[in-house]
Each structure stands twice: as C-alpha cells, then as structure tokens.
C-alpha cells in the first residue's frame, strides 16, 4: 500500500497517513511504519516514560530546594505519546527528504540548548531527538523555497498556536497577519509540510489508529520565548483535521515572524 497524500484546506500537504487496518501493515504492537522503518509502541512508551520520570525527578529536586511539595499534576510533563510519534515520523520523513537532495545536516543544536523552552530534561531521548530535528529543520528551511502566505495556511498555523495557549482565539485574518508580521515561519512551515507530504506520497506511511492525528513538530519565537507546537494534518479517518475554529484559551505572548536565537534553532 502506498500512503496517499492529502492536500489540506490550509494549503499544507498532509503527511499521508492511513489507518493500519486499511493495509497489510496492521501489527498491534507497532506505532508507525515509514517505508522500511518501523517504530514500535514499546519504543514510543519508553521515550514517553523517560520524559515523565526525568521531568518528575527534576521538579522534585527544585521543590526540595524551595521547600515546597509539588502536586502529582506538577510532576507530569505535558509531552504526550502523540508528540513522540509526531517527532519520530517527521524526523524520518525529513531525513529522507534531505538525503534525496544530498543535503548535509550538521550536528549543531544540543538538547541543553532546547531544555529550558522545551521544558524537558536534556538527558531524555525526546530532547535529543528534538535537537536532531531542529538541526534538520534549519537545513531544510534554507533549501526549500518558502511557500505563498495564503489566508488558509496562515490560519492553519494560527489555529495550531491557539491550541498551545500562546495566542488568543477568535482573531480575524487581518489581525493574525498583523501579529505574524511577514509570516516567515508560516511560509517555512507550509513548505516543510509540502516536502514531507511528497515524501510520504513516495513511501508507505502507516500510523496505528490509536494516534489520531499526526502533525509536524514546529517551533516559533515570540521574541521572549520559544513556542513548541504541532500542526496536525490527517486524523484517524484519513481526512483533513479541522484546525480553523479552535476553542478559546488564555493569551500569553504573540508569536512573531522572527526565529529563535541561534542557540535555539529556527522557526518552522
């Protein structure tokens, strides 16, 4: 089975994921197939558990120093198993895109540089994978021609950011354009999505149906902090995920078109 690529209403290419049950790749202990690469549920669970354990330990140590007693909720990282799958699948597709273009990806961004904004201990595999992903993003963003800044692609990224609580819901297209400046990070996110979609169209990509929507891990700078978000593409039914009407959430900083500082990678 060749995973079909769906072009989202947001003018961003889908990752081309299909239900495992729809093809021959249906092992219940597999989280994702990307071509000849297989990611087991066991590995996803291990990466997730590693984050939760080390994050909880770090919070406890901080609490002891402050003479406080953290609640069970405070000891849990916001990282989910879905985040892990998003990262693994996107990283594999991105590597394939870079290899096809004969691009060299330097090892520059370290987990330690991402630790504070990612809010995940640098010793975790998740943080290490993010460091590898940001290195890849920088190379691909430099090589891929920026996409057009359409209203649909703009509002798709805006909707994804609303879900993180980084910006108010209910803004008009005109207000979002003003908040995003020249929209450079939207252009690169759209171009990257298209490149990953084309690669997913070329290889077999199948996702375990327990992971309902696969998205490209992305980041953007507000000028004061870095926001990590995921732009979803396909839900478990193989249809475009609606991210144009998110629920209202509290506001913090508004993202800008400026990328993170050099030690934090570039916006995607």
Walk me through this protein's architecture.
With 268 residues, this protein is an alpha+beta fold. The chain contains seven helices and six strands. It has helices at residues 41-66, 81-100, 111-118, 125-143, 151-162, 173-180, 184-202; strands at 18-19, 30-34, 37-40, 205-207, 214-221, 226-234. The protein has a four-stranded mixed sheet. Strands 5-6 form a two-stranded antiparallel ribbon. β2 and β3 form a beta hairpin. α2 crosses α7 and α3 packs across α4 (125-143). The longest helix has 26 residues, at 41-66. The two termini are 30 Å apart. Residues 1-24, 234-254 and 256-268 have low confidence and may be disordered.
Keywords:
alpha+beta; 268 residues; 6 strands; globular; disordered C terminus; four-stranded mixed β-sheet; two-stranded antiparallel ribbon; disordered N terminus
Summarize the structure.
The protein is of the alpha+beta class and 268 residues long. The chain has helices at residues 41-66, 81-100, 111-118, 125-143, 151-162, 173-180, 184-202, and strands at 18-19, 30-34, 37-40, 205-207, 214-221, 226-234. Strands 1-4-2-3 form a four-stranded mixed sheet.
Report mean pLDDT, rounded to a whole number. Answer: 79
For the CA atoms, what is the radius of gyration?
18 Å
Record field, number of beta strands: 6
Shape descriptor reads: globular
The portion of residues forming beta strands comes to 5-15%
Sheet with the most strands, sense and barrel status: 4 strands, mixed
What order do the helices and strands follow?
A: EEEHHHHHHHEEE
In helices, the fraction of residues equals 40-55%
Structural class given helices, strands, pairing?
A: alpha+beta
Distance between the termini: 30 Å
Uncertain segments are: 1-24, 234-254, 256-268
Total of helices: 7
Q: Strand order within the widest sheet? A: 1-4-2-3
